[in-house]
């Protein structure tokens, strides 16, 4: 009994072959697109790091900028100012954001929650320069630029981010916890503040860190609120505070090479903070999700 | 037949005053915070329109159709900035949309398990780069490269198209701005699209593959049609971001008030004009005109975000009717 040799080949031909080729091309395009995005990220990070290297020294972190704009000097005043601005903005945005999230997840009926959510999302997408103009009209006209005006502008940017992060964590809390609290006769507010909120600590912290990273790099809201400043170290929030983003922005617009070098250095500091904050937030998030058993 | 013993009377015990106050108090405080967000958005709209009112009442809508911006003669119009905004944003979307959708498809359908998380995080990281840093990179690294290599090449080979005019000498211009905007909006569109693609039911995808479709045919026949409106919303959100980006664009667009067909030429967008004038305007009318620009940006921002969010809501279980 002899085995029949197949008359047909298993190699795809004609239409099938074309379909497979198209499929292969599209898969390659997708892979290349993803690699391109990663390559651009790498390119930006590496060129900032390489160009910042000559500027980095102990003086760069401990000295304020040279008053005459020449070489030498550092960005200590901008680092301190930025830290102060972001800290104040967090102090404003975090409590309000968490309260909004509690209202949306624990109290609001869907008919009320929907519109408020929409407002938060629209607020999040609003051009930040418009936020800057708003704060300019509200706090700067007639009073002059100030640290608290800048912090308020940053807080507006942070608010929807914090609220959303807190809300997402609150939604992860098992309903059984709420029911257990109520079944034991514990009142609603004690359940929320004593049982539910503590379990969301990690998630809220993650949201806060991410929002801080975003706020630290925001320039537009500060342009009209805290941009015309004395380069010396200052912690006086009733006057404009030096800060890293505005420093990079103004230095990048100057033709002076030594200022460019300082701008690269400041950019590296800013980017290092943002990337480390994002990574920390990711680690915190993974931890808090694990704890919530998700 | 058992009955409830009468020696245990069922009485309704009132809850303590503290608990009643606490419940109402917490609800009132959180409601106040939520209303504060609504009031904040209202205040932004009201304040910006109030600031812009002198110019709005002076020019009316003709502000939008006049291309003159002349501080000396005190004549102001927004057309050249609207043009710059439209050109840069459109160009950025043109490049970013296919890239972002391809990345999202790769991340949701193709990526091997290990790479998915890493590459996905790196793409998100791209969105975390502060715009001022991207602008610095744009003006000192990307711009010079473009003006020495890519722009002359495009001008030489595609110069018969008026949009590829003579290259810029410094590397600042609408093309550079559009590329920087592309880098900013690709991660935004990609991350929304990825979520959308992951929500397409697996049964549908597997069904298509079982019928003999290739992966690409499954994507084209099942995933893209199912998420079409969601992709549109993602693009609108990216557009909103591109239209409103002030800082990075100011750094790389070069500035200018004339309308040119050459995409390598300098220009200004609405947002970049406002940002580049932060150190003050020469006259109160110029200041009011800048605030009029801010009001235009506000309206654009409200509309794009509102439309996009309403569409996204239909997909997102968290946002939709719970």
Short précis:
The complex is a heterodimer of chains A (294) and B (322). Chain A has helices at 14-52, 58-62, 76-107, 110-125, 128-140, 147-172, 175-183, 188-199, 201-216, 220-223, 244-252, 257-291.
Mean pLDDT of chain B: 87
Order of strands, widest sheet of chain B: 1-2
Give the oligomeric state.
Answer: heterodimer
* Biggest β-sheet strands, sense, barrel of chain B: 2 strands, antiparallel
Order of helices and strands of chain B: HEEHHHHHHHHH
Number of domains of chain A: 2
One letter per element, helices H and strands E, the order of chain A comes to HHHHHHHHHHHH
CATH architecture of the largest domain in chain A: Orthogonal Bundle
Structural class call of chain A reads mainly alpha
Q: According to CATH, what is the topology of the largest domain in chain A? A: MetI-like fold
Please estimate the helix content of chain A: over 70%
Radius of gyration of chain A: 26 Å
Distance between the termini of chain A: 61 Å
Low-confidence stretches of chain A: none
Strand content of chain A: under 5%
Q: What Rg of chain B, in angstroms, do the CA atoms define?
A: 27 Å
CATH class category label of the domain at 80-282 in chain B: Mainly Alpha
CATH superfamily of the largest domain in chain A: MetI-like
Shape of chain A: flat
